[in-house]
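Fill in residues.
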């Protein structure tokens, strides 16, 4: 029996007013859907963080959690730079997820 392999994602959601939420998940499609349907915890729901503007993949959950903590500690400008590197127009990347 082979072990199931997961891919872990660190992601950033944005609200229409620009509030940013950083999270980690092993199912990006499901998690983004939960954000869009207001099924996610109080912060994301309160501020309407429904647009996926950034994500990265990790093989191991420990690496993903460490990266999430690192990004959460970034100042706003550094988070914006990270997003702009891969998504300069701040488009909703969830439109391209499978």
């Amino acid at each position: 029996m082979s072990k199931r392999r997961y891919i872990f994602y660190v992601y950033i959601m944005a609200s229409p007013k620009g509030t940013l939420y950083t999270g980690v998940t092993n199912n990006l499609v499901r998690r983004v859907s939960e954000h869009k349907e207001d099924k996610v915890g109080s912060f994301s729901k309160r501020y309407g963080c429904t647009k996926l503007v950034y994500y990265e993949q990790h093989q191991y959950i420990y690496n993903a959690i460490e990266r999430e903590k690192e990004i959460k500690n970034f100042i706003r400008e550094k988070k914006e730079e990270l997003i702009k590197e891969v998504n300069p127009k701040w488009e909703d990347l969830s439109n391209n997820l499978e």
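The first helix runs from residue 28 to 36.
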